[in-house]
Amino acid sequence: MKKALLLNTVNPRIGGLLIRGKKGTAKSTAVRSLAALLPEVSVLQGCPYSCPPEARQGLCQWCESGNNDNPPVSHQVRIVDLPVGASEDRLVGSLDIEQAIKSGTKSFEPGLIAAAHRGILYIDEVNLLNDHLVDVLLDASAMGRNYVEREGISVSHAAEFILVGTMNPEEGEGDLRPQLLDRFGLAVEVDGIMPSEERREVVRRRMAYESDPFSFMDQWQEEEGRERERLLQSRQLLGQVTVSEDILGLITDICAEYQVDGLRGDIVMYKTASTIAAYDGRTEVDVEDVREAALMALLHRQRRQPFQQPHLVTEQLDNMLEEYQNQSRNREAEDNSSSNRDHNEDESDPSDLGDDEQESDPDSGSGPQDQWFETGDPYNIQSILLPPPDRRERPSSGRRATTVSGSSAGRYVRARIPQGTVSDLALDATLRAAAPYQERRRESTGVDAESRLVIEPWDVREKVRETKTGSLILFVVDASGSMGAQRRMVAVKGAVLSLLLDAYQRRDRVALISFRGTGADLLLPSTNSVDLAQLYLQEMPTGGRTPLSKGLYLALETLETERLKDRNVLPLVVVLSDGRANVSMDGGNTQAVEEARGFASIFDDKGMTSVVIDTELDFIKLQMAKPLAEAMAARYLKLEDLRGDSLADAVRNELPSATGGADTSPDTSDGAANEMRRLYDSLG
Predict the structure, then answer these.
(1) How far is Cα 165 from Cα 322, in angstroms, rounded to an integer?
(2) How many Cα atoms are found within 13 Å in the side-chain-facing hemisphere of 607?
């Protein structure tokens, strides 16, 4: 992580850095510490664009051509924090309202991108940032300029900054889209696991800093000075670094071998390898530079399947580099002694291959699992995404639905001309629309310039708010002992994994409930991280009796909690069981089946969309899950029918309408169902 940060300071054209890691791995600390390490920059005093004295942009009064009254000053490299909730106006800049009101002229008020020029733009939890803002940022970072065309303003200014984003994959959306990941030059994975001695050293330094910060900083002043001087020398040497045609061929071969889409990976590897050589004080790139560059440039660009963690297969890379070195040695041998060429080839290659064959003899073996079953192979299914109600808008995106809220709830993203009565006034946009005309309106109305603003009805703007209302898919999985017969749990886990793959593509939220023995457990609360769901699915044990009632009750309780958090949540309950309930709520086994069906009828009463997948694979089938589906008003499917179009047809028939509920409702007026509803109300 530290090496990647330093390389970006030597050569900002690498394109920034994405740091992935769990909490407590010093991601933010490292980025903020970088500013004190870098050499100071010379800027025109007061210039919001951080213009250097020798390259004035002429966009403000401080750096206009001919204005020599403003002396340059030196200050530390600026770190600009981009809040997750920042608006586009704050990021790229917008109309200067104060200037427009005073003089009626349209002038540009620079945003955070302008403030980060010649500095560092830092985004903590970049995976939580709006995708549109991330795209704008990466465009400005790649081009080195920020183009603003809005509100009658057309401005472009230099935007050369080091873009650094950090993220914790366990939080928020889990990950960025691949096309956005590719726009970051380098990416590193930070692991917080350290040996005991290193942990002790971290604690010692932290305590030393807290007890006497100034003495601690003085202690490292000399070493920081040496590193600062090394960075300056590396910048000067960078232009002299050369990359041979053989090394260029190696870089492109590696990217082709890893099936990297596009050419950005090749270009970033070239720049990174050259920067590594300059940082080490060399003017020629070697094989080790390429290897180190590949580890940072390809981590987030290699193709990977859903649920596959970002991890670069270094064995494949090492084999390619070793083959390149062998070929280089052979060419050198041919050049030095053409007469002994055949002898050299016979002596070198067979021995190397023999050593490799002797060393690569992995011992792989694993014992059978008695209570944990592996996950079956996933297969293609049709989408089970629930569309939002008709009253909300939805873009044509494959991601979790980002909808335009019809109320004052949600995040304010932009403003628009009102469509009917204004219920959510966008004051900032209204002022920007009215500001350029204040001087003229005051003259025509005779209003005192110091007393009030003149706002006409056509100036009014209303807020557009976005909320994320993707489906919540709640898996209720039977993990009792009957699921171990004929290894049914393998097929069940494979079915859930297939559904998770679909949720991954749609960015839906998922939750996982397992019931076995005498109780039910919420293994995974509602989350965007389907990687965690897949992990808990793998570790889910099997055995014991079948407390189906407790599993359904916990599902109802979980959905009620989610609706308290978000009233627009669109739940889909997927129950995977054979329906053979034998444990009731009080722990007995009498009336367990009737009790479970009574709880199932509550899903129908509440208009919850559900699907029951019968996991029974025995030759003689009791089909006890079918009455359960009828009580829930759920679509009934057999496990073998889950593939292909069966699930798509099932879910399409069970999608909630704008008024909620399914098309058909079974008769739930029997006494057992009413008793279960009363029991549920008393418990909840």
Answers:
(1) 34
(2) 9
- Give percent of the chain with pLDDT exceeding 90: 19
Give first-to-last CA distance, the chain, whole Å. Answer: 49
Structural tokens at position 287: 């094989």
Task: Give the mean model confidence (pLDDT) for residues 560-578.
Answer: 84
Highest mean pLDDT among 3-12, 299-308, 638-647: 3-12
Structure tokens at 457: 């009805």
Residue that the structure tokens 């003689």 belong to: 620
For tokens 């897949």, the residue is 534
User: For residue 13, what are the contacts with CB-CB under 8 A and spacing of at least 6?
Assistant: 271
Q: Token match 């002694």: residue?
A: 337
* Encoded tokens for 234: 């590396």
Closest CA to 257 of 314, 342, 213, 210: 314
Name residue 427's amino acid.
Answer: L
Decide: 137 and 113 in contact? Cβ < 8 Å. yes
3-state secondary structure of 174: coil
- DSSP bridge pairs for 527: 510
Strand partners, 145: 158
**Which amino acid is it at 671?**
G
Contacts of 195 (CB under 8 A, 6+ apart): none
Contact between 549 and 596 (Cβ < 8 Å): yes
Please report the DSSP string for 466-485 in residue order. Answer: EEE--EEEEEEEE-SGGGGG
Structure token digits, residue 404 = 């335009």
**Could you tell me where the DSSP H helices lie in 579-664?**
592-605, 625-632, 645-654
Query: Of 151-155, 398-402, 580-584, 624-628, which range is least confident?
Result: 398-402
Long-range CB pairs of 534-539 (<8 Å, 24+ gap) are: 534/307, 534/375, 534/497, 534/500, 536/512, 537/375, 537/493, 537/496, 537/497, 537/500, 537/512, 538/374, 538/375, 538/493, 539/372
Give yes or no for a contact between 251 and 260, defined as CB atoms under 8 angstroms apart. Answer: no
As a whole number, the mean pLDDT across the chain is 76
pTM beyond 0.85, yes or no:
no
Check if the beta carbon of residue 529 is closer than 8 Å to that of residue 503.
no
For the question of residue 394 being annotated catalytic, the response is no
The encoded tokens of residue 489 equal: 């749990």
- Region of residue 15 (left: phi > 0; alpha: psi -120 to 50; beta: else): left
Strand order in the sheet with 509-516: 519-527, 509-516, 471-478, 570-577, 609-614, 635-638
At 157, phi and psi to the nearest 5? -145, 160
What's the pLDDT tens digit per position in 371-383? 455 555 554 554 4
Do residues 442 and 454 lie in contact, with contact meaning Cβ atoms separated by under 8 Å?
Answer: yes
136-172 pLDDT, tens digit each = 887 888 788 888 887 677 888 888 888 898 888 766 4
Contact 11, 271 (CB under 8 A): yes
Q: Is the pLDDT higher at 273 or at 666?
A: 273
Distance CA 456, CA 38 (A): 51
Angle at 251 between CA 250 and CA 254, to 5 degrees: 85
Neighbours of 197 (CB within 10 A): 8
Residue 399 and residue 506 in contact, taking contact as beta carbons nearer than 8 Å: yes
Sign of the Cα torsion 632, 637, 639, 642 reads negative
Q: Which residues of 619-645 are buried (b: 16+ CB within 10 A; e: fewer)?
A: eeeeebbbbbbbbbbbbbbbbeebeee
pLDDT given at position 3: 94
Residue in 20, 264, 597, 635 annotated catalytic: 264
Would you say 94 and 110 are in contact if contact means Cβ atoms under 8 Å apart? no
What pLDDT sits at residue 260? 86
Using CA atoms, how far residue 338 sits from 44, 81, 341, 343, 345, in Å, is 63, 61, 5, 10, 11
